[in-house]
Write a structure and sequence with these properties.
With about 325 residues, the chain is α/β, with parallel strands linked by helices. It has eleven helices and seven strands.
Length: about 325
């Protein structure tokens, strides 16, 4: 039986709490003009006396760099229609959502909205309370898994922009599925730890090594050692994700989010829906799965044509 969806809890009435006394952005060269110092203090990026430690500076740099990629996408959406809807999966403490809202959304008067999706209820409640305190009416937070959010009636049928910053393991794939279901125009991903493909490679390793010996291409040597299996599995996971997006008509670019000295989880995938031809990337996707013995992953990494064929069989 499908569990009834739980509506987001209303934010508790807050006592009159003074927002921390903020210094000006001119005193903080790391902070963008117009950014609320008080908000950064509430997010614990700045200390109460307005200081920025090394860890917070690193975190802020990552978020700002991501914002630089997202803002032009939001502008493109607004050129086509009034109001932009963004869903941030695995929102955590919602650093990205709050900073985006503060810098871009708060001055819009067109129904634009940010939804933060997070499984930890205490973070959902804290984020909702903070949005209420700063009078950010266009922010909502839902206690849902990424997978559950795809069919949730608490979200609009169509979403303009989908983000997933460090959504662990298969949560990034669930975010992609969400974006495809919601016909998102833009998808911005920073994948995190990825173990599922590596586990399948490990399970099929003996067969792959045997087949490679017969064929003579030695490809399975790339994941013969456990450490290489983990690293190769992570790399292949993101390659498959890009092929999947291309097989649904998206134009995909892959780059670094920030320098490696700031984070090892550093790959940024940006997908823009362009209604591009699907056949060739679909063929490459299937070829990749077959070559690596990952056919069982076909339900996770699927092309538009394959999804349509599966639906027809089900009917």
């Amino acid at each position: 039986m499908k569990r009834a969806e739980r509506a987001p809890k209303a934010a508790k009435a807050l006592p009159a709490v003074a927002i921390p006394v903020a210094t000006t952005t001119e005193q903080h060269p790391d902070i963008r003009p117009g950014q609320s110092i008080a908000l950064l203090q509430e997010l614990h990026i700045l200390t109460r006396d307005g200081k920025l430690n090394q860890d917070s500076r690193r975190k802020l740099k990552q978020v700002y760099h991501l914002v630089q990629f997202i803002e032009p996408l939001l502008e493109q959406v607004l050129q086509d229609h009034a109001g932009v809807t963004l869903v941030d999966h695995g929102a955590g403490k919602s650093y990205l959502g709050f900073i985006l809202y503060d810098l871009f959304f708060k001055n819009l008067q067109n129904g634009s909205h940010i939804y933060g999706i997070e499984t930890r209820d205490e973070l959902v409640q804290k984020s909702q309370e903070l949005a209420t305190r700063f009078a950010f009416p266009g922010m909502s937070f839902l206690n849902l898994s990424v997978a559950a959010s795809t069919g949730s009636t608490l979200l609009p049928q169509q979403i303009d922009v989908v983000t997933a910053l460090h959504a662990c393991n298969t949560a990034t794939d669930d975010a992609i599925h969400f974006a495809l279901t919601k016909r998102a125009r833009f998808i911005v991903l920073v994948p995190c730890c990825q173990a599922e493909v590596a586990s399948v490679l490990t399970k099929n390793k003996s067969r792959a090594l045997k087949n490679n010996a017969l064929i003579g291409n030695g490809l399975a040597e790339l994941w013969r050692h456990p450490l290489h299996t983990r690293e190769f599995g992570s790399q292949i996971t993101n390659v498959l994700r890009c092929l999947q997006l291309e097989a649904h008509g998206y134009q995909v670019s892959v780059t670094e989010l920030v320098g490696w000295e700031h984070s090892m989880k550093n790959e940024l995938i940006v997908a823009s829906y362009k209604n591009l031809p699907r056949q060739r990337p679909s063929e490459r996707l299937q070829q990749m799965l077959q070559t690596l013995g990952l056919e069982e992953m076909g339900q996770r990494f699927f092309s538009e044509q394959r999804a349509g064929a599966t639906a027809e069989v089900a009917i």
